[in-house]
């Protein structure tokens, strides 16, 4: 009989970021174990999705604190986790699961959100209770260093499973060099910063043929639409609906752009590497600097330095064909570190 693994996520609706990484992990582990992905929030679709068994605890509330309290209630009276291997994708979910630690066969937490995302009191609590977890999986060296006095902390980066691209996704490419901001339209992702940088770059490079795509959805969508509509460069700053994976727009986009307040990892960077395409990123405190080797497989510019980033892009556009191809090969080579086959073997060692 296969071991049972339950992966808890807050929601299955957003198929980027944490949820996308969770699905990739679930798909791989399903080759060896009985894997179930469980959402706290009520979902429109459950069952077998993309080959993965998914279910929901059917919790409904606009307040997160209520969701977590109801999750606690479910574990107490409805949902059985005894003798199961449990993987958590959220520190808040992990905190509740620790209450039931004596019943769980193996408890693993993945630190998708960076340490700086949480207040000091909650971080203090994490350090006190994480010693009771079997493994704390960190996605970056910085996060791992925070728990380096714990024998149970381990560095395991996220990974990507390639998808076949449907013909319908192979859109006609807009002329010029196309740069994409890809992710959730929420404050911490820096979407407005991306728009302001695009305006700055286009103002100082008025003869260039560069376009800036915003691909995604989220609470700031209407705000971004309003800003772009008022911009003198609205013809070069384009909104695009959300996608499930980067390969869907591989025929359109030439490079990725990261301008977040923080990133625990930076999954889109690896997705673009897989396609042989570089990422332009501000050197924020975590994430990108662990993946990008500046001017080798992408670019790092001083944090939110628009002038420096503009020069970086201008220099990239001046590369010869051979230099551009060399960077493409560097990206593809760098991607091997995040190959799903290597990641699965590491995860099996943890679980078995």
From TrEMBL:
Q: Name one GO biological process term.
A: carbohydrate derivative metabolic process
Q: Among its keywords, does the record have Glycosyltransferase?
A: yes
Q: What EC number(s) would the UniProt record show? A: 2.4.1.52
- For the keyword Cell wall biogenesis/degradation, the answer is no
Enzyme class, one word? transferase
Key words, A-Z: Glycosyltransferase, Transferase
GO MF, one term, reads:
poly(glycerol-phosphate) alpha-glucosyltransferase activity
> Which InterPro entries would you find in this protein's record?
Glyco_trans_1
* Record-linked SUPFAM superfamilies: UDP-Glycosyltransferase/glycogen phosphorylase
Question: Which residues are in the Glycosyl transferase family domain?
Answer: 171-329
- Name of this chain's protein: Poly(Glycerol-phosphate) alpha-glucosyltransferase
